[in-house]
Specification:
Strand content: 15-25%
Bound molecules: S-adenosyl-L-homocysteine
Shape: globular
Oligomer: single chain
Helix content: 25-40%
Distance between the termini: 50 Å
Largest sheet: 8 strands, mixed
Length: 347
């Protein structure tokens, strides 16, 4: 039994079953035992690998997006470059390097990283130690500076706690987690149709939309998820790059859910923002020019590097099977009303 499981079992025995939302919040964010609070989960030796960890090209394409968005915002002399959940800082480091080709945009950028994990904050500090822009850390998006901003988030929204509801015999109740006599965690209300919402993700989206209405800005959100057409139960856990039971080792595996892009887009629009997407990650990266960039890098690469480039490009843009990143991962863009559409989306 993990230390966090012991705590959760105590809570359940004292107060009764806990919601999936409470469970996920404890697993990921508990100050003493939460998954993100205690470790660097990324990379081959960790539990999962993300796009910026696969190739520098991912962050570079986002750098190109940032420069274009900044131009579309009227090239403000100062703007906040916000990243939500920056992991090891690879995306931002690669984006800033690409922005050296747009020196006026780079000179205007003030980086603000929204991160809860003390371990990952240290990794980000190291990755961005010689960054060509000032960098500060924030606890939440609402703490970032007022004024023009560009926000990016890759695999951030999937890590926010979800609520699950179970509908059975015409009755809807919140899905909860109980424990058996041995302290094993079990779903209390199984059987029935499951639906999900992500209150924390909705709050962040509302807050972004409110900022987009007040000042010129744009936000790019990339994650795995769906357009919001009744997906059912998407709660999942990963450990050492394999799927595991989300109830089996709380605090020691990554627990996530697929992002409901349809819900986030509706909230952004209701808040006054203009929106684009979802498009597949493959379509987004191709529209940003990732194939041209890969060909350019291949020109000065040796044979081994050429193979690595081709395999990274394939991983980021492959759409052939259901779990391939190119199709399961999607991108949406939010922008201030009145700004022209952002690049990477066909409309
Ligand atoms: N964007 C990175 C990391 C993705 S993992 C990449 O693509 O590699 C999720 C990131 O979000 C981690 O940095 C994690 O610590 C952070 N995170 C999770 N929940 C958070 C929260 N509530 N507030 C701020 N950061 C959070």
């Amino acid at each position: 039994m993990t230390p966090l499981q012991r705590r959760i079992v105590d809570i359940i025995r004292r107060d009764g079953p806990i919601s999936v939302e409470t469970y996920m919040a404890l697993c990921l964010g508990d100050p003493a035992h939460g998954y993100y609070m205690t470790r660097d989960p990324l990379g081959p030796g960790g539990d999962f690998t993300t796009s910026p960890e696969i190739s520098q090209m991912f962050g570079e394409m986002i750098g190109v997006w940032i420069a274009t968005a900044w131009g579309a915002m009227g090239a403000p002399p100062k703007f906040s470059l916000v990243e939500l959940g920056p992991g090891r800082g690879a995306l931002m480091a690669d984006a800033l390097r690409a922005l050296r080709a747009a020196p006026d945009c780079l000179a205007a950028a003030h980086v603000e990283l929204v991160e809860i994990s003390p371990v990952l904050r240290e990794k980000q500090r190291a990755a961005l130690a010689s960054a060509p822009a000032p960098v500060v850390w924030r606890d939440g998006v609402e703490q970032t500076a007022d004024g023009p901003f560009i926000l990016v988030a890759n695999e951030f929204f999937d890590a926010l706690p979800i609520r699950q509801c179970v509908r059975r015999d015409g009755e809807t109740r919140e899905r909860r987690i109980a424990c058996d006599a041995d302290g094993a965690l079990i779903f209390a209300d199984d059987g029935g149709a499951i639906s999900e919402t992500c209150p924390a993700g909705e709050d962040v989206t509302r807050s972004i939309a409110a900022r987009l209405v007040k000042a010129p800005g744009a936000a790019l959100i990339i994650d795995y998820g769906h357009a919001g057409d009744g997906e059912g139960d998407t709660l999942q856990a990963m450990r050492a790059h394999a799927f595991v039971d989300p109830l089996a080792s709380p605090g020691e595996c990554d627990i996530t859910a697929h992002v409901n892009f349809g819900a986030l887009l509706a909230i952004a629009r209701a808040g006054g923002a203009a929106t684009q997407g979802p498009v597949s990650q493959a379509d987004y990266l191709r529209a940003m020019g990732i194939e041209t960039r890969a060909a350019m890098l291949a020109k000065r690469a040796d044979d081994r590097q050429k193979l690595a480039l081709a395999s990274a490009l394939a991983r980021l843009t492959d759409v052939k099977n259901a779990r391939a990143m190119g199709a399961l991962f999607k991108a949406i863009a939010l922008r201030s009303p009145g700004l022209p559409p952002m690049p990477g989306f066909d409309r």
